[in-house]
Design a protein that fits this description.
This protein is about 20% helix and about 30% strand. The longest helix has 21 residues. InterPro entries: Mediator_complx_sub13, Mediator_Med13_N.
Amino acid sequence: MTAAANWVANGASLEDCHSNLFSLAELTGIKWRRYNFGGHGDCGPIISAPAQDDPILLSFIRCLQANLLCVWRRDVKPDCKELWIFWWGDEPNLVGVIHHELQVVEEGLWENGLSYECRTLLFKAIHNLLERCLMDKNFVRIGKWFVRPYDKDEKPVNKSEHLSCAFTFFLHGESNVCTSVEIAQHQPIYLINEEHLHMAQSSPAPFQGQSEATCMCYPHQRNCVQSYLSPWDVVGGLGYRGW
């Protein structure tokens, strides 16, 4: 048997190989632009302002809806924010996307070099785009992990796969943006709906006559017992029970 035959027989042919490393983009020719809020010097409104009233956040949402690579971040000054947009080729049509109160404070080209700061923000912008795609497929984000909540109508819980994924970005060579996909297994996660709330209200807790969610926590964590159930803004009471 030849060496080539052994190679294929051992399952090492290229068609049978799998990888968690993927090439996403080539940086050659990339362009970017940085905006800040012109109405308040270098600052945008404070973070407590609603997104629809914040020029930076509103422009960021519009960029996501237009499938643009974008990211916003806090500036070094307190309560300051800025918006970054990346693209290749011709400049995208930003009419009706960028708020009229934002002003351009920096523009860059690949030919002029890509700083570490700009590269890091590009990775975050790519992550935002991946997050939007996964959200459209009913994934939810918990920390760095993307999880698809369990649907009891699909399969029995003990026969269903509960997998989550996370992404790490790096630069291969001088201009090739790659991602490493990490896959993990998690406990079943459910989305709380009105049915769960009705069940909790109609199921009296032992010896009390009213339902209450109970959690285990350390004595110094007594302040962690208040929670909110979105999107109904219902205050949830978590009873304290010491170890």
